[in-house]
Amino acid sequence: MSWSLLFFLLVGAVSLAAAFGVVTSRQPVHSALFLLTNFATLAVLYITLDAQFLAAAQVIVYAGGIVILILFVIMLIGGETNDFSAAQRAWSRTVGIALGVILLLVISYSALSRTMATSEETAALLQGGTPKAVGIELFSKYVLPFELIALLLLVALIGALVLGRQQEGAGEGIPSVKANE
Amino acid sequence: MMVETSYYLILAAIIFSIGATGVLLRRNALIIFMCIEMMLNSVNLTLIALARQWGNLEGQIFVFMIMAVAAAEVAVGLAILIANVRHRQSINIDEINLLRW
C-alpha cells in the first residue's frame, strides 16, 4: 500500500466520520462543527487532486464563510428540535435509511461501471490547479459565466436583505425557537 | 503514485448518500441545510476527481461556480429560515408545511 493511498484512506475516514456526525448530532452546533471538519478534510483531498486554488477557496468560502454564517444563525435562534423523540414514526426512519442505502448502491454502480485508469500525463495538464492556471481559464473562456455568477451573488445579497429585514411595527427582534414543542 | 479516481468517486458517493439520508431523517431545518451543503461538496469532490482524470480544468471551473451558487443559496436560505422563525417560532419542518402564512 503506497503512502498516498494510506493518506487518502486516513483523510477519507475522517471525512466520513464527520459526515456521520452532521447527521446524527442532537445539537445543531455539534453538527456545524462536524460540517467544518468535513469541509476541511475535503480541502485536503482537493490538494491531493491537483486543485490548489479550489482547496484554498474551499477553506475560505465554506469553512470561513458558510459554516460561520450557519453558526451565527444557530446562536441567533437556538435551533434545537426533538428529532430523536419516540413520537417520530419508527417506519419513517427505516424507510429513510433504506432509501439512502439504495441511493448509495445506485451511485456506486454508475461510478464503478466504467473502469478508468489514471495517468500522470493527463493530470499534468492541470498544472496543479494553481490560481494562475484556473484564473487564465476563468478569464478567457468563462468570462460570461463568471460575470453571471457575480450578478447572482448580488441578487442573493439583496434577497437576503429583504427577507431578513425587520418588519415595520415589530420591534422585539428575532425570537428564539420555542423549546421542544 | 496516484490514488485511483474511482476511490474518490466512491468516497463522494458515500458522503452524498449520508447527506441525502440526513435530509430524509432529520426534521431540523438547520441540519437539513447542512446536509444539503455536504451533498454539494461531495459533488464538488467528484468534479475535481474527474478533472484530474481527464486532465481538464473545466471541472475545476465548474466547482468554482458551484461554490458561488452554494454561498448564495446559504445566504438566502438562512434568511428564509430566520423570517420563518419570526413568524412561527419553529424550525421544525413538520410545522413549516404551508407555503402561505
Task: Summarize this structure briefly.
The complex is a heterodimer of chains A (181) and B (101). Chain A is an all-alpha fold.
Question: Could you walk me through the main structural features you see in this protein, from its secondary elements to its overall organization?
Answer:
The complex is a heterodimer of chains A (181) and B (101). Helix content of chain A is 71%, strand content 0%. In chain A, α1 (3-24) packs antiparallel against α2. Chain A is an all-alpha fold. Chain A has helices at residues 3-24, 28-48, 52-77, 90-112, 120-124, 131-140, 143-164. Chain B has a single domain, classed as Helix Hairpins (Orthogonal Bundle). Chain B has helices at 5-25, 29-54, 58-88. Chain B has 101 residues and is mostly helical.
Question: How would you describe the shape of chain B?
Answer: elongated
Strand residue content of chain B: under 5%
Strand content of chain A: under 5%
Mean pLDDT of chain A: 84
Tell me the radius of gyration of chain A: 21 Å
Helices of chain A, by number, come to: 7
Stated plainly, the CATH topology of the domain at 1-81 in chain A is called: Four Helix Bundle (Hemerythrin (Met), subunit A)
- The CATH class label of chain B is Mainly Alpha
Residues in helix, % of chain A: over 70%
Number of helical elements of chain B? 3
Low-pLDDT runs of chain B: none
Number of domains of chain B: 1
Oligomerization category of the chains in this entry: heterodimer
